[in-house]
Each structure stands twice: as structure tokens, then as C-alpha cells.
Design brief:
- The protein is an alpha/beta fold.
- About 45% of the residues lie in helices and about 25% in strands.
- The longest helix is centred in the N-terminal third of the chain and has 27 residues.
């Protein structure tokens, strides 16, 4: 399959119009239309549904778009890696990370590394653990920060020098806002918002055999969006400390769970992974720094 053909397909998918796409690609509309028909013939399915004056992706087209985006990104990343081999003072590193208030630790180490290697460019993709590890497995990320225990059969890892602490975010005028800790009995009468990852792993373990008693009405993958639901009094939200602004005057408060629940965080990378020289040096820097910090910083800092 021609990479250029995939890029042209993505342009048609983006614009939803063969005329606009051909103009942006600087080819004739007839030539682009022929390419799309050849692509459909190669896979034996239809990727576009023609509606009115435009085009809409079919279910098969949506799948191809996702795969094509990954393929194009991987090729671009590979080309950049070959260029970086000759440029030890610079290059690109691709990181995956969850929502965590402790990302500042990574940021400080990036800054420290750049004092010696100012040409390093860092690209961060945010997502839940399953999302970022899937991208790393596909070759799109060099290493990722994850919440929870790593799969030691697949990945090398080092403990990130901080844990995330679970609690509840509520409006300051909520009846639970004055409490200094929240138990499962406190949560039971209320609608709850939580991330799907947290519900299936940490919170379920914390609740034990009472997990099914929780009234989980909504799920989110970004704490900020969940906080807007809380502001509208739709539900209370279970989330990590520090992800939502609970400073005085903003109308929200975070209260820790009891018994305390914390989630360990790890930096992981694929076993037998081959890195560009600059990425390998950065990873070595992070390992040294995290080992040192793990000796002096409590896990719940």
C-alpha cells in the first residue's frame, strides 16, 4: 500500500469533500477519485458514503482512518528517529501520561536535561493507562507514565517518585463539604462521577464486596470535565488529589477517602526497545533522577 495514498485518503476524510481535498493536495479531482476507488477495491469494502454535496465515512472508513493515522504517524516518527541518530544534542521524545498532579516532577527533569541537551523536543500524549500503553505498543510513544502496576512481562519500569491520592470533589455548599474524610457509607446516597479506569480497578478494590452499592451515574476521562458536572450539582466526583482547582473562591472542595486509597505511578518502556541516542540518554537521566528521588520523597507526597 502506498503511503501517499493513505495520506490522500486522510485528506478526503478530513474535508469530507473530494473537490476541496483535491485542491489542497494539488491533484485533479478525477485522479483523487480514482485513487479512492482503487483503495476501496484493494480492501474490498466501501469507505465513503456520498451524502448531498459531501462524503461521510462508513464504519469501515472510520476504522481505516484510525489505522492510517497511526501508520502515517509511525512513519513520520521513524524518519525523525533516523535524523536524530546524527544529532545527539537534539531530537524528539514521545511520552504518554495520565492525568496526575505530579507531572511537575517529570517537567523539572526535562528542564534539567535540556540544560545539557537543549535541542530535545518533548511531545506528550495524555490518556488513561490503557490508551497510552496501546500507543506505545504500536511504536508511537517511546515510554509512558502509568497509574497502577505495570505488566512486568512486557515492560521495563521504574517507580515514579510520587503516588496519587484518591478523594472526592464536591461543591462547597454540598452537605458533605464540611467533612474531613469520606467513607463508602458517606458516598452511597449520592450520584458519583469517576473515570472508567478508576471504577474498574482502584475504587472497586477499595469498596471490596460493596462496590455494586455505589451509584455511579457518569464516567469521564478528564477530571476538568467532571468538575464542571460537579459545579452543576449533577454528582460528586471521585478523583486524584490536585487534578481539580479547589482553591478558595472556586466553589469546590476535595476531601480524602477513608481508609486512605493511593495509586502507585510508574515510568515504563518496552523490553528490548531500541531508542535514538537522545531518547536513550533522557531515559537514563530519568532513571537516575527517579531512583534518587524515591530514596528521599515519600510515596504519598
Amino acid at each position: 500500500m502506498d503511503l501517499k495514498l493513505l495520506k490522500n485518503f486522510l485528506m478526503v476524510a478530513k474535508t469530507g469533500n473530494m473537490t476541496r481535498a483535491s485542491a489542497m493536495l494539488f491533484i485533479t479531482q478525477s485522479a483523487l477519485s480514482k485513487q479512492m476507488k482503487e483503495l476501496e477495491a484493494e480492501f474490498g469494502c466501501t469507505f465513503f458514503e456520498r451524502i448531498g454535496g459531501g462524503m461521510k465515512l462508513t464504519e469501515e472508513g472510520l476504522l481505516l482512518r484510525k489505522r492510517a493515522e497511526d501508520i502515517v504517524s509511525l512513519v513520520d516518527k521513524t524518519k525523525q528517529e533516523f535524523r536524530d541518530i546524527e544529532d545527539i544534542i537534539g531530537g524528539d521524545v514521545h511520552i504518554g501520561a495520565p492525568e496526575t498532579c505530579h507531572i511537575d516532577i517529570f517537567a523539572r527533569e526535562l528542564l534539567a536535561f535540556r540544560r545539557k541537551y537543549p535541542g530535545l523536543r518533548c511531545h506528550v500524549i495524555s490518556g488513561m493507562t490503557e490508551q497510552v500503553t496501546e500507543k506505545m505498543d504500536g511504536g508511537l510513544l517511546d515510554f509512558v507514565i502509568i497509574s497502577g502496576l505495570p505488566d512486568t512481562d512486557k515492560y521495563n519500569y521504574i517507580r515514579y517518585p510520587a503516588d496519587d491520592i484518591w478523594g472526592m470533589v464536591v461543591r462547597r455548599d454540598h452537605l458533605l463539604a464540611a467533612m474531613d474524610k469520606i467513607t463508602i457509607d458517606d458516598l452511597l446516597p449520592h450520584n458519583i462521577i469517576i473515570s472508567t479506569q478508576g471504577l474498574s480497578e482502584e475504587i472497586s478494590g477499595w469498596c471490596g464486596d460493596r462496590a455494586n452499592e455505589l451509584k455511579v451515574t457518569d464516567t469521564v476521562n478528564l477530571a476538568y470535565n467532571g468538575s464542571r458536572f460537579v459545579r452543576e450539582n449533577i454528582a460528586v466526583m471521585l478523583t486524584y488529589k490536585g487534578l481539580v482547582d479547589t482553591s478558595p473562591g472556586n466553589g469546590l472542595v476535595w476531601i480524602p477517602l477513608y481508609p486512605e486509597l493511593s495509586t502507585p505511578t510508574y515510568l515504563i518502556w518496552q523490553k528490548f526497545q531500541v531508542f535514538t541516542p537522545i531518547v536513550e540518554k533522557f531515559l537514563e537521566h530519568l532513571i537516575r533522577a527517579f531512583k534518587k528521588l524515591n530514596q528521599v520523597i515519600p510515596n504519598n507526597d
